[in-house]
Amino acid sequence: MNDKSDIGLIGLAVMGENLVLNMASHGYTVTAYNRSIDRVERFIEGRAKDQSIRGAYSIKEFVDSLGSPRKIMLMVKAGEAVDTVIEELLPYLSAGDIIIDGGNTHFPDTSRRTAYLREKGIHFVGTGVSGGEEGALTGPSIMPGGSPEAWPAVKPILQDIAAKLDDGTPCCDWVGEDGAGHFVKMVHNGIEYGDMQLICEAYQIMSDLLGMSADEIHRVFADWNEGELNSYLIEISRDIMAFKDDDGEPLVEKILDTAGQKGTGKWTGITALDLGIPLTLIGEAVFSRCLSAKKEERIQAAKIINGPQPSFSGDRDEMIENLRQAVFASKIISYAQGYLLMREAAKEYGWHLNYGGIAMMWSGGCIIRSSFLEKIKEAFDLNPELNNLLLDDFFRKKVESCQEGWRQLAANALINGIPTPAITSALNYFDGYRCERLPANLLQAQRDYFGAHTYERIDQPRGKFFHTNWTGRGGETSSTTYDV
Fold it and tell me: Which residues belong to the active site?
């Protein structure tokens, strides 16, 4: 083992432990530290035994064990804990040392920490890490941003431990300044919420409307995973449907239907509202988790509120194909909306994002990895200024070809009272986006009527605002106008 470690990691929960083991397996000497010293001891005497991993039992010992410039990765709970650890480290650090936050941090916190540490001569990297515990061990998707000066020093380690594409390209590259890395990870997680919700809606339709067993649904997901919907989340859903409890019954049917969340989906929705981006599908996915949490209320409502009883008498195979088309088209909408949010954020915060490169970072190791991410890269390679994926020929044609099945599926779900908020919101976005004239003219008239908020006219130049005295009693004074 080297006298000095190449990198140190603080936070030995599952992700932290696995990242340390990943680094060691690639030839790096690593120092591991955790606030609970007994966890360090268990790790060093257990999974890390006989590897190029040393334990530290104080912050000073931890920092002193590292080669210069010191590279320190934090895998602690996002929020106050990160600031606390940074303050504990600062007295022992020197100019040019690097702190890497690999947690699910909210991007404004990363921007703040980057600026704060820059004043002290310390470089800060905020990086998204996706792939769960297995990815952390064998190769995750890594999305670093923050201080550009830090990238040359951390690039070899982060790219070595990242997942690799078939041609050896690491699923890790520099994303951008300040909070850009954590922003891209946030959008990744928002898309993950959407993908999971779409698959869950497909499961409910097959179960509640088509009366299919878990084994039958398993076979559908297995079939889908061989085609356009090939993805990690379809793959694990396939496996989940086939998994049996001790009594031989499907385990999935015994799991309580209340979903948890850690906040990244919520942050994605709030940021979209702040930037004026219609992130409708991901928003519905977040709200669906919130609704699922109201289990006791839903039990009471089911006893009181009447609705249609699901009944299906058509061609089941045709309905399953319609469902596949609906999920595929909705998935495209989800990614289109996510990319819209990243493009708007880049303008707002002055970031220089490589959209095709981001698709490649998401192509291996991460939770949303899927077969069509390569097509997203091709779309942005062809047109780096592409405003919306739906304007790319490949994605436009794919969504158009799914329209009939998508609409049939949505109509059947609505008629039978099966909730499909993600699928139907995606369809509504598609129809709204392709609609040259929306009813917002009436909405603007309403706003001007009750609040003198003004409106623009189709027979006048854009940016010229008018106010009408609709009642004859309102006068000519108008209010200010707010544009998202």
Answer: 185, 192
Cα 257–Cα 311–Cα 219 angle in degrees, nearest 5: 60
DSSP one-letter code for 5 = B
Distance CA 176, CA 145 (A): 5
Neighbours of 138 (CB within 10 A): 15
Q: Are 268 and 195 in contact (CB under 8 A)?
A: no
**Nearest in space to 6 (alpha carbons), one of 105, 73, 57, 88:** 73
* Least confident range of 69-78, 106-115, 257-266, 439-448: 257-266
Distances (CA, A) of 450 to 445, 456, 471: 9, 16, 10
Task: Identify the sign of the CA torsion 154, 158, 159, 161.
Answer: positive
- Residues 97 and 122: beta-carbon distance below 8 Å: yes
**Three-state SS for 404?**
helix
- Helix 14-25 crosses helix 151-161 at what angle (to 10 degrees)? 90
Best CA proximity match to 6, nearest among 24, 19, 21: 24
Helices 180-204/232-242 angle, 10° precision: 40
* Crossing angle of helices 214-224 and 316-349, rounded to 10°: 60
For residue 172, give both structure tokens. Answer: 């890790």
Mean pLDDT, rounded, for 16-45: 96
Q: Model-level pTM greater than 0.90?
A: yes
Q: From CA 362, how far away is CA 226, in angstroms rounded? A: 19
Q: What is the mean pLDDT of residues 55-82?
A: 96
What is the reported pLDDT for 483? 55
Q: In 147-276, at which residue ranges do the beta strands (DSSP E only) sit?
A: 176-177
